[in-house]
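ugh ok so i messed up the first submission bc i forgot one of the chains. this is the corrected input, ALL of the components this time, i swear. 227 residues overall. if the numbers dont match what u have on ur side tell me asap before i send this to the collaborators (the ones from the other lab, u know who)
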Amino acid sequence: EAAVTQSPRSKVAVTGGKVTLSCHQTNNHDYMYWYRQDTGHGLRLIHYSYVADSTEKGDIPDGYKASRPSQENFSLILELASLSQTAVYFCASSAGLANTGQLYFGEGSKLTVL
Amino acid sequence: GDSVTQTEGPVTVSESESLIINCTYSATSIAYPNLFWYVRYPGEGLQLLLKVITAGQKGSSRGFEATYNKETTSFHLQKASVQESDSAVYYCALGDSNNRIFFGDGTQLVVKP
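and heres the new structure output, hopefully the right one now
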């Protein structure tokens, strides 16, 4: 049974609209991450969190907000979606580098902004 | 900032040939970061292949090996004899002191029968 689940798996949004991507983990992990992947490129870190009610900026936070209301849930929010935010978004959880730092990924959410 | 650079793909090899995918890292926030190789097989999600958290050590899994070389800041992935089932996209990654994980751009491996 998948331990990191994302929703929606696919979404088409209009430019300027609001988009919320949700992530739920059952690993009991402290760390959660949001990455985006563009075709032919690697994963780039948007936001991450190590505890509920707290989020940290990654490498490319502009245009994105994150919310961690509980240990299990981590959302990525695009308040004003833009064409350049078309990508596949991956959520991941981890027990932290003190415990090897292995990431467990969700299956991805494909976002198309028109 | 911290970053990872790896062999640009696609890399095409014939079955039973040897393979090396280069990975070099730059770490400014931590002297000896944790290093990882992740893999995405066709139709599957991204998963850990192997990890090494101590400089000088070697990690291995599924016939693949990678040695953490702090002198050359490298973590190359090697396999002596590839199989068609090894066809996938391979990602080198680095973990920094803030528990952030940075990925390279990925290397697509195509193994010809």
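quick check: The longest strand of chain B covers residues 88-95. that seems consistent at least. The mean pLDDT of chain B is 93.
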